[in-house]
Structure formats: C-alpha cells, structure tokens
Amino acid sequence: MSGTMENLPPVQPSAFVPQTSTMAIVSLVMGILSWFLLPVIGGILAIITGYISRKEIKNTPGQFTGDGMAIAGMVLGITNIVFVVLFGICWLGMMVFVMRGVGSGQ
Fold this sequence. Notes:
By secondary structure, this protein is mainly α. The chain has one domain (about 20-105). It has helices at about 20-35, 40-60, 65-105, and strands at about 20, 65.
C-alpha cells in the first residue's frame, strides 16, 4: 500500500440521524430553572413545552428524540408548582395562626 487515499472506497453518506427536539431541551432547562430562578413561570413553561415536545416526537416517529428530557422537564415543573402551592398554604396558615394569637391578647 502506498499510503495514499486514492485506494480507499468512496465515503457513503451516513444514515439519517434524528435530532433532539428543541422543545424537549427547553422543557428540561425550564424545569431546572423553576427550582432556582423562576419558581412558577419556569414550572408552567416546563409543563407546556414538555407537552408540545412529546406531541411533536409522537407525531413524527424517527425524526426527533428527547422524550426523556421532555418528561423530566414536566416532572420538575409539576413538582415545583406543587411545592410552591403547599408552601403558600403553609405560609398562609402560619399567618392566620399568628394573627389570631396577636388579636386575642395573648
């Protein structure tokens, strides 16, 4: 072999590689941000974009990937909203308890 590239077979184009859904990535990022920077807005956006992404992946089989990222984003968003609501209920309960204590003269 002379070491030249002339003897190599021609390069065949690779098979189609599916793309990761952009909305799945957005869902995951928003789900993560909902825990650190955007509690309610990030959670809502994570749920919406996750739903859109899963629908896109389902309707175009083989063209897009990222279903796991979409699910993870949705789970992060849903759990964040649940915790925010529970925290709000607890906070309101404590405020009512404190206000009752102050108003009763104790």
